[in-house]
Amino acid sequence: MIRIGEYNTLTILRETEPGLYLGDEEENVVLLPHRYKPETFEIGDALEVFVYLDFEERPVATNLTPYVHLNDFGYLHCSDVNEFGAFMDWGLQKQLFVPFKEQARPMKVGNWYIVYLYLDDQTNRLVGSSKTNRYVDNENVVLEKYQEVQLLVTHITELGANVIIEGKHSGLIHNDDIFEDIRTGDRIKGYVKKVREDNKVDVVLQAPGYRSIEPNANFILDELKAAGGFLPLHDKSDPDTIKNEMGMSKKSFKRAIGTLYREKQITIKADGIAIIGDE
Question: Which of 15-24, 105-114, 200-209 has the lowest mean pLDDT?
């Protein structure tokens, strides 16, 4: 069976004017247009291709890499909106349709959205939905403490970064556990900190047992040493200056120097920070 919206390993059956015809063991066939065929090939070779539906809703294969695949989430750019719904750029020639009924809020051209890709049972078409909450399940959370997981950041709130865990569960990285700049759409590695009694999941970005809970602190120490023990930056410095000089947000910088100050590795002066012993 050739799976729509997923990668398939198929065999080259024949070459024709439109392209290569590929097939599976059940004699299902799909076209790989000429623009996607490999430079060198032989009849009988196996190819891994992504299969989706063309403009006439026929299965077609491609060697392009989509930004999202079936039953998973992606961070997609809205390129068009018409009277039927929105159309998202998902890395393929034909854009992904998100009908109005599947929009958590009205989509606007130029904006980015977390979108879930599913196969509509009634029309057998690939469809997107930004109503992502219906596609995550926290009733049956099968996660262990300290387990390494893949995360998709969905949005940032006052509490921290909301994430989708392993494409299945919702979770939260609390502000106190964020030591780097992360944004909506980022795909990052994390670790399960706690599964609460109500099945809400707390995750962190640092591996369990990682002693330096503030990775930016080591970077700042290195910069201080390279600068002779003093940097003209402090918690009142302009955010753009900190970003340009240190490559981090002001929030991350303040958290890092706070850690160094508590560990008595630096002093914080009116005009900057200094390594203790290098004043």
Answer: 200-209
Structural domain range at position 219: 215-275
- CATH number of domain containing 12: 2.40.50.330
Determine, yes or no, domain membership for 155. yes
Q: Is 163 in contact with 191 (CB distance < 8 Å)?
A: no
CA distance 185 to 115: 10
| Among 15, 39, 62, residue at a domain's last position | 62
- Look at the chain and report how many structural domains it folds into: 4
The b-or-e profile of 39-60 (16+ CB within 10 A means b, else e) is eeeeeeeebebbbbbeeeeebb
Digit-coded pLDDT (tens) for 166-181: 999 999 999 878 877 8
Q: Which residues 6+ apart lie within 8 Å of 122 measured at CB?
A: none
What is d(CA 277, CA 265) in angstroms, rounded to the nearest whole number?
9
Strand, coil or helix: 46: strand
Does 100 score more than 80 pLDDT?
A: yes
